[in-house]
Write a structure and sequence with these properties.
Structural class: alpha+beta
Strand order of the largest sheet: 1-4-3-2
Number of helices: 3
Order of helices and strands: HHEHEEE
Strand content: 15-25%
Helix content: 55-70%
Largest sheet: 4 strands, antiparallel
Distance between the termini: 48 Å
Number of strands: 4
Length: about 140
């Protein structure tokens, strides 16, 4: 009777361990991809519009500061202009910025600040939105 219990217990434990490993390897990465995509789709249009507005402002730095301040107040999250050399992103994210896309810099849930970046067309400057507080 004890052997039967031990075999059943070990098989149950092995099944649970296998389910946990499969969840960690297959399910969680896909969930994280969907979360990142949804967050990007939510705020990317606002960041792209702000980058376009700042590009139209051109080299007038005092105007850009005023626009950034207004945007920060309206959205409730700080905007900043940074030289692209000051921002350290993965190679894939830099390629997306070069194509004119808005990039989300997110290390994962509960792992630090979340930022959005967009390149100002024709410049080496990046528009940064964040840190954005992600709640769900």
């Amino acid at each position: 009777m004890d052997r039967l219990f031990l075999r059943v217990f070990l098989k149950l434990f092995a099944c649970l361990l296998l389910a946990a490993i499969l969840t960690r390897v297959l399910i969680i990465p896909r969930v994280n991809e969907y979360v990142v995509r949804n967050i990007e789709n939510t705020l990317a249009p606002q960041v792209a519009l702000a980058a376009e507005l700042l590009t139209e402002q051109g080299a007038r730095r005092h105007d850009a500061d005023a626009v950034l301040e207004r945007l920060s107040q309206r959205i409730g999250t700080p905007f900043a202009l940074l030289p692209s050399s000051d921002v350290h992103l993965e190679a894939g994210a830099l390629e997306r910025l070069d194509r004119g896309e808005v990039v989300l810099a997110w290390r994962g849930q509960f792992k630090g600040p979340t930022f959005f970046f967009a390149r100002l067309a024709g410049t080496e400057q990046l528009l940064r939105l964040g840190p954005v507080k992600i709640e769900h």
